[in-house]
UniProtKB/TrEMBL annotation:
It holds the Pfam family DeoC. One of its GO terms (cellular component) is cytoplasm. Belongs to the DeoC/FbaB aldolase family. DeoC type 1 subfamily. This is Deoxyribose-phosphate aldolase. One of its GO terms (molecular function) is deoxyribose-phosphate aldolase activity. The active site is at 101 (proton donor/acceptor), 164 (schiff-base intermediate with acetaldehyde), 194 (proton donor/acceptor). It comes from the Bacteria.
Length: 242
């Protein structure tokens, strides 16, 4: 999906529908999650993404108002046993999650243990049934290009629905347009590509989409979407803007 397709650029509403509106801070409270949901509804995002212990969310506050519910698994280190990840995913689905974002074992990827990486994903896939979405977080900033490609191939082979750049918690950093492009090229439309981690402005978000992201993980969604209003102001004053 391109931000500047042959038909029209993404507008505010279309970009919002690519967003997983995210709150994964360890100190987040139930009140914070309720506020996230209300903000997500107001912004018109695709989903809210919260920690597993915050599930279930009130169906009347989410699905009945057009929001999907996403959560994370093996987060943020990915160093959990595969059966623990699988159980966590199963429990989250039972608690109402529509989508699960799992973290691979990054050490296994750095060692080139791709059979292990694939088996880890397959274990979680078995707990995320048809009709529910599995995203695989590869922590792309900590991988070289070869490792990014192999991690994406493992996700394809294991039956994932998306590959995702980052947890947003790794010191190596978050999403980059280079990683998103490489991931998109590797999965070749067979999987979606989610850019997350460090996407803080409208320019960041549009660049990620331009380079192949089909979903965005944002914690500062309101600020990103406010860029459309700032761009309108710049245009009205004769500036470039968006």
């Amino acid at each position: 999906m391109s931000a500047t397709s042959a038909h029209a650029p993404l507008d505010r509403a279309a970009l919002a529908r690519l967003v997983d509106h995210t709150l994964l801070k360890p100190e987040a409270t139930a009140a914070d999650v309720a506020a996230l949901v209300e903000e997500g509804v107001g912004l018109g995002v695709f989903s809210v993404c919260v920690s597993p212990s915050m599930l279930p969310l009130d169906a009347a506050a989410t699905r009945e108002r057009g929001l999907a519910v996403a959560t994370v698994c093996g987060f943020p280190s990915g160093k959990h046993h595969s059966d623990v990840k699988a159980f966590e995913a199963e429990r989250s689905i039972a608690a109402g999650a529509d989508e699960v974002d799992m973290v691979i074992n990054l050490g296994a990827a750095k060692e080139g243990s791709w059979d292990y990486v694939a088996a880890d994903i397959e274990a979680v896939r078995a707990s995320v049934p048809d009709g529910k979405v599995l995203k695989v977080i590869i922590e792309s900033a900590a991988l070289d290009d070869h490792e990014i490609v192999e991690a994406c191939r493992a996700a394809v082979g294991a039956g994932a629905d998306f590959v995702k750049t980052s947890t947003g918690f790794h010191p190596a950093g978050g999403a980059s347009t280079h990683a998103v492009s490489l991931m998109s090229e590797t999965v070749g439309g067979r999987l979606g590509v989610k850019a997350s981690g460090g996407v803080r402005t409208l320019a960041d978000a549009l660049a990620m989409v331009e380079h192949g992201a089909t979903r965005l993980g944002l914690s500062g969604t309101a600020a990103v979407l406010a860029g459309f209003d700032e761009g309108a102001g710049a245009r009205s004053e004769g500036g470039a803007g968006y």
